[in-house]
Amino acid sequence: MVANYPWLLLCVPSQPSANYVMTKKTGLPYSLFNKPSRSGASGAFASQRAFTVIELIVCMGIVAVLCGILLPSLRAAREASCKLNCQSNKRQIGTAIVAYGMQSNSRIPQSVNAEGNQPRRQELMASRLKDGSMPGSAGWDGLGFLVKGGYLGNCQCLYCPSHHGDHSFGRYADDYASKDSASVQIYTNYHYSGHILRQLRAGLDDSRDTEITIDSGSDVLLLTDGLRTRSDFNHETGLNRMMADLSIEWWADTGNLLRNKIPVNAVIAGASSAASSPTNFDNIWDEINPQPPVANP
Fold this sequence. Notes:
Low-confidence stretches: 268-276
Strand content: 5-15%
Helix content: 25-40%
Largest sheet: 4 strands, antiparallel
């Protein structure tokens, strides 16, 4: 066979060593067909592919630096998305309020927390009042009338995606589903103005109450983010506010000055704490939506 293929002689040493054993079938040296053991080859390649400890530390350091650069940007992007979702929620609520007003002589949903000599405006985040919370006031209230009347297709729009307090939609989902059989106090993430606008008289300490309607215009604040407690303040740097004409704009809380005025714990009217008194809350509301003094009659 070798005679027929003379070029194979180039592959055979002139004096084959003991390792070159001629095969019976081909007459060629066995070492030409003998492959190195798999274990030996893999061990050699593995030793070449392995990382050193220094290389591993360098890679981990690069990953840590990249994470430090990217995470703040990702956090800012997420918060911007939450602000847009919050505005979308307010638009849905505003549309429901207008639909309610068109069937109620332009009136917006009423709330017992906005009435009386000492209105409990801190509680205007509540959409349903618990039995016994106020005499004769149990049941849906304020924005809750939109739920009762079926003006809101999805009650989840009453809850801000940036909320980090105790009043999440998941906490009240079953109560919303049960409608009139719910027996708990339900809070939303948005602070409703109520149906009464309180304006100070020029030169006097008393105020004049004016009914808010769907025609009140862009000078009257209708809905904003939660102000009941600091944990209800949905966004860290400000809030979205919706006016009576359904326009929505971002109100920046520079230096957290407004947030620091909000009480840490919820205290209703009549409490001894000056920080959580009704007068102080009216001042907070007026800071978001300042109203010119009303001329004396």
